[in-house]
Each structure stands twice: as C-alpha cells, then as structure tokens.
Specification:
- The complex is a heterodimer of chains A (322) and B (481).
- Chain A is mainly alpha-helical.
- Chain A contains 14 helices and no strands.
- By secondary structure, chain B is an alpha+beta fold.
- Chain B has 18 helices and 15 strands.
- Chain B has a six-stranded mixed beta sheet with strand order 4-3-5-13-8-14, sandwiched between helices. In chain B, strands 10-9-11 form a three-stranded antiparallel beta sheet.
- In chain B, strand 3, helix 2 and strand 4 form a beta-alpha-beta unit.
- In chain B, helix 2 packs antiparallel against helix 13, helix 4 packs parallel to helix 12 and helix 7 packs parallel to helix 9.
- Chain B is globular.
- The chains are: A mainly alpha (322), B alpha+beta (481).
- At the A-B interface, helix 12 of A face helix 3, helix 10, helix 16, helix 17 and helix 18 of B.
- Chain B: It comes from Modicisalibacter muralis.
- Chain B: This is Multiple sugar transport system substrate-binding protein.
Chain lengths: 322, 481
C-alpha cells in the first residue's frame, strides 16, 4: 500500500471514529448507554419476577406444577385476606416497620450528631458501628436469638443478679423473661434487632446530609444564643429532612420485605402473633405448596409500598427545593 | 503411718478397684465381641431387585447428583459420602452428594422443578405429596423393593404413596422414631420410677416436679416441627385426628377437644412460656441444660449429649408413646428419608443409576442404621435384623449408652409409630396443615388464653377444611362426599 493510500485510510478511520464519537455524544444516546445496564438489571431481576408473581397470584399454580395455565382471577387474594394469620401478619409488618423507623430516626440523628465531631477512638467507633450492617442478616439474627434465648440469655442473668427477675421479684416468678415466647416482647425484640441491624445504613445516609450543612449556620445560631435543642430542631432537623426521608424509605423497604429475622427469632410465634407477611408468604407458598396463594400474600403490600415510596420521594424533592 | 483401720480400708479399696477394672475389661471385651459379631456387613450391590434388572456398569459419563438434608448425627453423613463414592466407583457413575439444611430442601426442590433442571434425587424429610405433579412416579422401585425386602413399615408406605392418584411419588428408605424422653432422677423422686406412662402421669407428675424443682415439662407449642409432632401425638392418643382413613376432615371431634383442654391444663400446671417461640433445637438445648423434665424427641440430641460428655445422659430415660384416656399410644415418625426424582430427569442412564442407588442403599441399610447410631430405622425391617433382634444393637448399644440397653424401648417403635395424615395417607392437604402450623398455633392460642378450646378447635377445623377443599378440587385428596 502506498503512503498516500495509507493516509487516506487513516483519515477515513478517523472520520468514522469521529462520527461515532459525535453520535455517542448526543445526550439521548449517552443517556440510554449509561442507563442501559441499570434498566436491564431492573427488567431482569425486578420487573420479570414481579410480573411473574402477579401472574402466579392470579393462577392456581402449586409448588409441583408452577404453570400459569389456569386463570382464577382474584380468588387467591380473597382467600388469604380472610385468614387470621394473614391479618396478624399484615398488622405486624406495619407495626415492626413503623417501630423500626421511629427508633431509627431518633438514633440515626443522634449518631450522626456524634460522628460529625472529632474524638479519640472515632475510627474504632465507626468500624464497630458499621459492623451490624456488614454482618449477614441470618448471622445477626442468630446473635440475637442467643442473646434472648429462653434458657441462656445473658440479659436474664443480669436481671436475676440485680434482683429484678426471679421468684418474688418485680418482673415475675420465673428466672427468664421469655422474650421470644410472648407476643409483645417478641415483637419488641424483633424491632430492637432490626434497629440494631439497620442503624448503620440510616446513620450513613443522615450523616451525609449533616456534613453538607454549612458550619457557619451553626456558628451564627450559637452567636445568636441558640441552645443545643433549638439548633437541633430549628436548623439541623429541617436541613436534614430530605436525607431523613431517604433513610425512612430505605429502612422501610428493607424491613418490610425481610423475613430472616422473624424466621430465626420467633418463627412467627407464639401462634401467629409475631407473623409477618414475607414469612407467611414463604410458609404458605413454598413450604405449604400453595404457590399462588403465597404470591398473593407477597404482593399484598405492593400498592401500599408504592404509595409510600411516591409520597416519600415527593416530600424529599419538595424539601430539597425549599 | 496410717492407722490400721484406714490401712485395711485402703487395701480393700485396691481390691475393689482391681475387681471393678477386671469386670470393666470383661464387659468391654464381651461388648466388643458382640459389636464385631453384629457389625454391618460390607456393602453389596446386586444387579436385580424383583423385576428390575440393572447393568453391572453404567455407560461412561453417567452421573447422578443427590441433594439431601444434613443429618442430625454427623457420623452418618461421613459414612454416606464414603458409601456414595464407593457405589459410584463400583458402577462407573460419578456421584455428587450435596448436604443442605433440612429447612432448605423443599425450597431447593421447588426451585429446581421451576427451573426444569437440578439434582437427580432429592431426599425429603416429610411426605412431599404437594410436589407430585413435578415428580417422576417411582412405582417400579417400590414394587422391586417390596419383592426384594418384604414387608414395608406403614409409616413409610403412607408417606410415599398417594391413593387418590394411585401414584408412588417417592421411595422411603428409612424413618426415625420419636420417643418420649424423661429425666429419670426427677421422675423417680416424684414417684414414677419408670417415668410417665400416660398423659395423666405427665400432667400430675410434671406438675409435681415443676412445683418442687421449678423444672418444667418441655413440649413445644411453637410453629416448628417438634411442636407439630407433639400436638399430633397428643390428639391421636386421645382418639382424634385431622382426617379419617378416606381423607375426610374429622378434626372437630370431642376427642380433639379433650386433647386441647388437656394441653391447656398441662401448660398452666407444669410449663413455662418458653415453649411458644421454640425452634427445632430448643427442646434439645433445654433438656441438655438440665431444665426440662420431659420432652418428645428423636435420639439425635442424646447422641450429641454423649459426644460432649453431658452428665444428663446418665439420668435420661426413654418412653414409648404416652397413653391417652382410652389407653391408646400414638407417636409420629420424627422424620422420614424419602427419595424423589423430579420430572425433569430424562436421561435413561441417570434414571436407572439413581433408582439402583436408592435400592442399593436399602439393601445395605444395616450400615446406614449403624452409622446413624440407630437414628435411622429401615423402611424394611428385614434389612437390619441386628436392630430388632433380642440382644441386638438396641439391647447392647455399641455407641456407649449406659446402661447398654437404655435404647431398648425403641425396638417397639414400629408398634406405636404412625405418620402425618394418620389414619389416612399423607397428602398435600395434610402437608399444608403441617407446614403452615395450624395445630401448634391452635394449641398456643388456647394456652395463652387467646381462644377457648372450643373456639380454637372450630377455627382450626375451618382452616383445615378450606385447605382440604382446595387440594381435593385438584384430585389430590379422597373423601369429601
């Protein structure tokens, strides 16, 4: 190939590359390229299973025959709603989620206030603080299972040593509290364990917002004579509102769809008094073999979660605008 | 210098110690000799069972995968893995064994059926009748086993055959007795030298022990396997049941009501609220910790306690099923070992190899039972004569029970052991009632005062009827006329 021909070819390649670069630079193309993997992921791992779950809930599929060839309308929803177990599971899912969110909001705000300052051992504290989130949920649940065990609970041992638990003591005649064997103690134990696990994530989210508040605003407030609580309620919390809403959203979605904690701690007992929807859906659909009814139970929270998510995101957007 | 009396005592002590040592050596020697005599024979792999013929060697490239639950006696899994490899080498088959948690087996089978691919054989711990549409019928294997091994345990037959469809959906190779377990020292002190014989004894003696020592009766009322089995044992022994022989729901009977009222009394007089959120390991832990006077469980906890040298093993006694008011005693099998083959397995060599593996395992069940430390009982008692014969393994436990015949009562287990669905067959409706904890929830609601016995029984019966109707419409349950 002559030198002139090579030059022409190179120019042609350069032209093609340049054209490709210009095409890729178009905002529409670039947007699709950047969003493509995420969209594919959502379609494959969220959209498809979601549509499949809807289809299953409208069929009479069983675990041995998961085919969708028999449409039964909303009868699975009508059947599951009538049962005591479902009603208790729905109630408990909402109680546990609301309880976790309330505690998380207070504790994450306090923790972010603490972590914004420098102090000796802060790094160690941060590492220990993040551990519950880094731990697999089943392992975390087993830790709490032993902590609250009906025979070996160290909490009970301390209470007995303090004289507040045991025969003739204020907390009753037994030497154990049986945290997981009593309805409201069981629910409270689940909330505490979930808070322990979720607090690091919520704190990180809130801390990001806290660090973005200009320090001058706090200094100005202090110069104007504002105390700790006034600064907290008049400056910190209003400025943190968007991040707190994000923390609420993440926490509620993660807690309401979680079944391992209940499965390991109480298995939904006593009776169904600590049952939650995801675990009941598993028991009914997979263990019990009624795949269609399990899908109906699992999907029941979807409209509720959709509304909560839309409202929360809208509130966060408005707060940011303000 | 020691005073003369002490010297004499010292010498006497030496003589006594020597005599005891000689006796111990003699006992060990004779036990060892007995153990050698009764030890399982080396595995044998015949090429035919009944009408089924198999090749000596399978074609190159044949492989099978087994997914089964991790055994509660770890020694069994060690033996099984070696056995499976030996079997594979003998048949030119590549055998892979996956041990998974017992709770994960149904969901793994469901996922495999959904995906249309996965292991060749699954070992289920309870009748997997709900999966029947995704499973291959194993009538030929069951017929071959009957021809080769003879009489089958009723608990296995009723947990692998569905009369409504006339299909053998599984091959049950073994089952596990679920005896009553009591603390001999506590019950002797309470005036019951042989432990509780009836539910009346359990209530009266258990209440006395609880009052005097604070140690409760520890039978579960939690949504888990042991609680479900205890509840059924109680109801059966009182004369009630979930269904009749034909699959009709007969739960709301006076007998069931009497059993529920009994349980409320037992809870109020001899138990604590710890039983409401137990998992399957909880009663074992509580018993080994010395804080239970009576539990209902298989012997795996006893083997674990032996291994860690727990002193509680010395004061442990076993009972067959407790008698109800009419003198009937019924206990469920604790678990079963049921092989099923999903419908997606289509390779002829794989199918033949898997079927031969299952039959060979039953043929060599004396090893399986021995290395499970007698946790596994055979589906066909002809395969483990050492287990049931007088002076056999249960009378002279080679795994170190003291006294050596502590487990002898298990030899009568086939007489008092029944199955999920008794007196009818296990079926998907029975399975769903069991897996969604309808009965243990009913008991817990009554014991906690959330419902009267009458309300709880009516409520449970209504739930059970709905579940049965759903499966009956699909043709899985008989009765209903």
């Amino acid at each position: 190939m002559s030198k002139a021909a090579a030059t022409v070819a190179t120019a042609r390649d350069g032209g093609a590359l340049a054209r490709l670069a210009r095409w890729l630079d178009q905002p529409k193309v670039l947007a699709w390229l950047m969003l493509g993997p995420a969209v594919l992921y959502v379609v494959a791992f969220v959209g498809f299973p979601f549509v499949l779950a809807i289809a299953l809930s409208l069929s009479d599929a069983t675990i041995g025959d998961p085919s969708l060839d028999n449409f039964v309308g909303l009868s699975n929803y009508a059947t599951v709603i009538q049962t005591d177990a479902f009603q208790l599971a729905l109630r408990n899912s909402l109680i546990v989620t609301a309880g976790v969110i309330c505690l998380i909001l207070v504790l994450a705000t306090l923790a972010s206030e603490l972590l914004v300052y420098s102090f000796r051992g802060k790094r160690l504290f941060q590492t220990l603080f993040i551990l519950p989130w880094a731990m697999p949920v089943s392992l975390a649940a087993i830790v709490w299972l032993w902590f609250l065990d009906s025979t070996f609970s160290p909490v009970d041992w301390i209470l007995v040593e303090l004289g507040v638990l045991g025969p003739g003591s204020p907390l009753g005649p037994y030497s154990h509290m049986y945290y997981l064997g009593r309805e409201w103690l069981g629910l409270a134990s689940t909330i505490v364990a979930d808070v322990w696990r979720m607090l690091p994530l919520a704190t990180i989210i809130v801390l990001a917002g806290r660090l973005s508040i200009p320090e001058e605003r706090f200094e100005q407030a202090r110069i104007d004579g504002a105390g700790v609580f006034r600064i907290l309620f008049r400056i910190t919390i209003p400025a943190l509102k968007p991040m707190l809403i994000v923390a609420i959203l993440f926490t509620s979605l993660l807690v309401i769809g979680e079944m391992s904690m209940i499965e390991i701690l109480t298995r939904g007992g006593p009776g169904h008094s600590t049952q939650v929807l995801p675990y009941w859906a598993y028991l009914k659909g997979i263990a019990g073999g009624s795949l269609a009814q399990g899908a109906a139970i699992a999907l029941f929270l979807f409209p509720f979660l959709l509304v909560v998510s839309v409202l929360a995101l809208r509130a966060a957007y408005r707060a940011q605008e303000a | 210098m020691s005073p003369p009396v002490l010297k004499h005592t010292h010498r006497f002590g030496q003589i006594a110690a020597a005599a005891l040592a000689a006796l111990a050596i003699f006992s060990i020697g004779s036990t060892a000799a007995l153990g050698e005599e009764l030890k399982p024979a080396a595995p044998e792999f015949p090429t035919s069972y009944g009408k089924m013929q198999f090749p000596d060697q399978f074609p190159d490239g044949t492989s099978i995968t087994l997914t089964q639950w991790s055994h509660f006696v770890p020694r069994y899994d060690e033996w099984f893995d070696q056995y499976a490899q030996k079997w594979g080498e003998a048949h030119n088959v590549n055998v892979t064994v996956n041990h998974i948690s017992i709770g994960d087996v149904p969901s793994t089978l469901a996922a495999s059926i959904g995906a249309g691919q996965g292991p060749t054989l699954f070992e289920m711990n309870a009748a997997p009748a709900a999966f029947i549409e995704g499973l291959k019928p194993l009538g030929d294997v069951n017929a071959a086993a009957k021809a080769a091994f003879g009489e089958r345990a009723q608990t296995c037959r009723h947990s692998s055959y569905l009369p409504a469809k006339d299909i053998w959906y599984g091959f049950c190779h073994g089952w596990v007795p679920d005896p009553g377990v009591y603390r001999t020292d506590l019950w002797q002190e309470a005036g019951y030298p042989d432990g509780p014989v009836s539910y009346k004894d359990l209530l009266e003696g258990g209440a006395k022990i609880f009052e005097e020592t604070g140690i409760p009766v520890a039978v579960g009322m939690s949504p888990e396997l042991d609680s479900e089995f205890y509840t059924r044992a109680l109801i059966w022994s009182f004369g009630g049941s979930v269904q009749d022989e034909n699959g009709n729901v007969v739960f709301d009977s006076p007998e069931t009501l009497a059993a529920v009222e009994y349980q409320k009394k037992l809870f109020e007089n001899a138990m604590t609220p710890e039983v409401f959120a137990w998992n399957p390991a909880s009663n074992n832990q509580t018993y080994i910790a010395g804080t239970a006077s009576y539990i209902q469980n298989s012997i795996s906890f006893f083997r674990s306690a032996q291994e860690i040298g727990s002193p509680v093993t010395e004061n442990t006694g076993f009972r067959p099923g407790l008698e109800g008011p009419g003198g009937e005693a019924r206990m469920p099998s604790h678990v079963w070992f049921i092989y099923v083959m999903p419908d997606y397995v289509t390779d002829k060599d794989k199918i033949a190899a898997a079927k031969k593996f299952a039959l060979d395992l039953e043929n060599n069940y004396s090893s399986a039972s021995y290395y499970a430390k007698f946790y596994n009982f055979p589906a066909f008692r002809s395969q483990v004569p050492q287990l049931f014969k007088e002076g056999g393994w249960l009378d002279n436990d080679p795994w170190g029970s003291e006294p050596a015949d502590k487990l002898a009562i298990l030899g009568t287990a086939p007489k008092w052991t029944v199955w999920l669905g008794y007196p009818g067959y296990a079926n998907p409706a029975v399975g769903e009632v069991y897996q969604t904890h309808v009965l243990s929830t009913m008991m817990a609601n009554v014991a906690r005062g959330e419902a009267s016995p009458e309300e709880a029984v009516d409520n449970a019966a209504a739930q059970i009827r709905k579940i049965f109707e759903k499966w009956r419409e699909r043709g899985f349950v008989g009765g209903g006329e």
